[in-house]
Each structure stands twice: as C-alpha cells, then as structure tokens.
Amino acid sequence: MENQSTIFDFQAEVGLTKQIGGRKATDELIELCHIGQDNYVLDVGCGVGVTPCYLAKRHGCRVVGVDIRNRMIDRSNERAKREEVEHRLEFRVADAQNLPFEDDLFDAVICESVLATVPDKPKAMHECVRVIKPGGYVGLNESTWIKTPPPVEVVEWVGQDLSGNAQLLSADGWVGLLENAGLRDIVVRTYEISAQNEAVNTIKRYGLRDMLRVWARSLSIYIRNPASRVIIKGAGAAPKSLFEYFGYGIYVGRK
Length: 255
Ligand SMILES: C[S@@+](CC[C@H](N)C(=O)[O-])C[C@H]1O[C@@H](n2cnc3c(N)ncnc32)[C@H](O)[C@@H]1O
Fold this sequence. Notes:
Elements: H1 7-14, H2 22-32, E1 40-44, H3 50-59, E2 62-67, H4 70-82, E3 89-93, E4 106-112, H5 121-131, E5 132-145, H6 152-162, E6 169-170, H7 171-180, E7 184-191, H8 195-224, H9 226-234, H10 242-245, E8 246-254
Parallel strand pairs: 1-2, 1-4, 2-3, 4-5, 5-6
Antiparallel strand pairs: 5-8, 7-8
The chain binds S-adenosylmethionine (SAM).
C-alpha cells in the first residue's frame, strides 16, 4: 500500500509532518470550510495527527484521520492520547485514492500538503467529494507553482524534497481539479513561502516540548541510519530561485 518515498517514513519515525503555512493556514481552512463544534471532519493524509487533535481540542469536532502509512497512524494515536482527545478521534490506514467510507458522511474534508504526492489526483479529489454531505466543504492546502514555468532544477528539487515523486500544479490546475470533481463556490488564495517563516511556523505548530522530542529522535536516527543522512542533507541544498516559483494555495469548494 505504501509508496516508495522515504522522506515520509523518516518523518513518521521522528514524529513530525509538515504542511505549509503553519497554524495560520490550518485556521484559514477551518474558517473557509465553516467547521464548527461537533462537526464530523475527515483529515486525509493526517500525518502524525496534529490537525485532528487541534480540531478536537480547539473546535470540539469529531475527527477521522487517515494516512497511507501505518507508522503515521501509530504516531497520531500516541498524540491523541498525549493531548487527551482520543475519545473524539479515530485514525485509520487508508489511501486517499480509495477512501473506506460511505457516501455523504462527513461535514467537511480537509487535506493539508498531501495531494501533490498522490499519483491519481482526480481520483483522490473525487473520493473527498464523495464522502462529504451535500452542502459540505472540501478544503486543500497544496504546494503550488506561483510562477510558471519553473526551471528544471526547481522541479527536480521540489519533487525529491516533498516525497520523492511530488508533482505540483499551478493555482489554475488545482482549481480545475476541484471543479472537475463537482465542487462549486470555489475560494482560492495563493501565498509565497520563505524558509525562515516555515521554520518558525513548524516550531509554533508543534511547540517546544514536541520539537525537543523530534530533534532528539532525528539526531539518534542520523547517527544510526546512514540512509537518513541523504534526506536531512538534501533538504538543505535548495536551488536559489526556489521560492520565486514554489508557494502554496488554499483551495476550498462546496458540494
Ligand atoms: C507532507 S505530509 C502532511 C501530513 C499532515 N497533513 C500534516 O499537516 O502534518 C503528507 C502525508 O500524506 C500521506 N500520504 C501520502 N500519500 C497518501 C495517500 N495516497 N493516501 C493517504 N495519505 C497519503 C503521507 O504518508 C504523509 O503523512
């Protein structure tokens, strides 16, 4: 079931997954999807479970998180226990392209920094739309080409850094995906990225205690596992023009 990339396996091991834009971007998705108290929400590609726990704790939602990796689901369950919200959460291993849920079930589906790495994006979008109730919302936070065409070295670096096989779209490409899946009233907001802001966003999203745990695990893996060193070093060698082309977008539509 799992694809070939190793960066997500590494992230699952250290207990840290990233979206772009940090908590501010998550709050924007929550607001645009009209998510509120007691809503039943699906988080597709939930990683280590940060957003499901936040939705349960801060907004009183019931949340199902799915991820294609077993280890992510283990980490999500650990987090839910730690944050004492496990009674509101359920985590399952599942592929975004084939969601194990009945039609018209959830009030909203959110998906943060996942679809760029999914091979059949139209199928995954169709699945997200299928499982929300009529009138419900799908909200994506996705890596986006904010200027096109991107140079080859940028395309290669982004593909490698995001998952080993990421394929980004322009804002028009993401909007087309939502429209073709039958969503309407589409809202689009695109943003530039800076490496410094993203580092700060990640620290704020996890908090210092979590970050210390992540750094300790990363160091231990770096020492024990030579393969992981390529991932850690690769992330440092970004092309200079990266952020001229590579940004992110918030895309929301209603069923
Ligand atoms: C960049 S991480 C983002 C994780 C999480 N959304 C967050 O905000 O921290 C992407 C996640 O998508 C998961 N993923 C990749 N392909 C998937 C698929 N086809 N179905 C479900 N999850 C997938 C990965 O295992 C990883 O946890």
